[in-house]
Amino acid sequence: MSAWRREGLRVALALALAGVSATAAAQGKSAADGIAEYRKMLEDGNPADLFEAKGESLWTTKRGPKNASLEACDLGKGPGVVKGAFVELPRWFADTQRVQDLESRLLTCMETLQGLKAAEIAATPFGRGEQANMEALAAYVSAASRGQRMNLPQAHLQEKVMYEVGKRAFYFRGGPMDFACATCHGEPGKRVRLQDLPDLTKNPGDGIGFAAWPAYRVSSGELWSMQRRLNDCYRQQRFPYPGYASDVTIALGVYMGVNAKGAESIAPAIKR
Amino acid sequence: MADPMRIRAQSSGSGATVRVLMAHEMETGLRKDAAGKTIPAWFIQQVSASLNGKPVLSAQWGPSVAKNPFLQFNIKGAKAGDKVAITWLDNKGDTRTDEATVS
User: Fold this and answer.
1) For chain A, which terminus, N or C, has the lower number of CB atoms within 10 Å?
2) Which residues on adjacent β-strands are paired with residue B47?
3) Domain residue spans in chain A?
């Protein structure tokens, strides 16, 4: 083979390789990248901002039979301290002698401070009446801790117990499809259609999983708190619906939150 | 009374970028509720923006715009300190105006 022909062959080969790599680059943009790009575009106008503003005004508005605001509500860092409270919930509360998550704690405050009926609110369908206010309040409280890292306390015995209970609930299989939370969220790299499913048995990363809820759902135009997220997870598993702010939902919150220790909270986030 | 808008106006280059988030149901009139009854149409029909009282944008919207709509546009020649006002009017005659200062 003459020198010029060999050179020509090398050029052709290089071109062919370049062609291959260009195609690979085009195909390298996976569906997940496309979704991430879409989310990035939506982030700029996250309507969760509207819920956050509503929650902020609800926090300071005098309401309920006792005509009081929630400004004296203790979310774990002292009465009235909102900033940084979200990344340490659920936690043990001495006054109620319970481990409580954000929503159940808000219910306690609404009952003790404002005189509203917690049981009535818990029985209200999502998005209606006081439940709509709960969503706004959850958006407001979580937004006050945006950018902070999940840091749930595990010092109290009950917090450790709730972690264990949450772990068991997470792996508990049942229902007509024999599903558990772990079926979808027990290992990395799984998805439902185009939605990546976080591995919730460990820290799934900044702003993923527990650190991303409450979130605004673009598809339904609603703000979902963690309680509603869990309620829908159980619906998808064809389990009976868990009670609002019930112990099992709080235990799952402790399990996911402790596992996500160190993850940056981006709540209230935006979801498809 | 409708919920307030969130308006951000930032000067960039020789103008300003305005981002508006409006709180509105934007019902198309084609959906049905749980009882099978049609949910009446309820959407923003007109949107207008002004810079220091002078109109800079007017738009006609319809039912295809999403719930809680987000609008972004640029205003040439806007400076820091200028006032940007946004007004919307919906098909029920409800209206809302909010104002922001260019920063």
Assistant:
1) N
2) B59, B88
3) 42-271
> Is the bond into A214 cis (omega within 30 degrees of 0)?
yes
Question: Is there a catalytic annotation at residue A233?
Answer: yes
Query: Does the CB of B19 have a partner CB in chain A at under 8 Å?
Result: yes
Domain spans of chain B, in order of start: 6-101
pTM: 0.81
A34, pLDDT greater than 60: yes
ipTM of the complex: 0.76
Q: Is A127 on the interface with B (CB under 8 A)?
A: no
B window 20-39, beta carbon within 8 A of A: 21, 23
The identity of residue A149, as a single letter, is R
Q: In this structure, which topology does domain B6-101 adopt according to CATH?
A: Immunoglobulin-like (2.60.40)
User: Are B21 and A53 within 8 A, CB to CB?
Assistant: no
In CATH terms, the fold of domain A42-271 is Cytochrome Bc1 Complex; Chain D, domain 2 (1.10.760)
Using CA atoms, how far apart are residues B94 and A127, in angstroms rounded to an integer? 23
Three-state DSSP class for A228? helix
Highest mean pLDDT among A9-23, A187-201, B66-80: B66-80
Nearest CB to B3: which of A54, A218, A221?
A: A54
The chain-wide mean pLDDT, for chain A, equals: 86
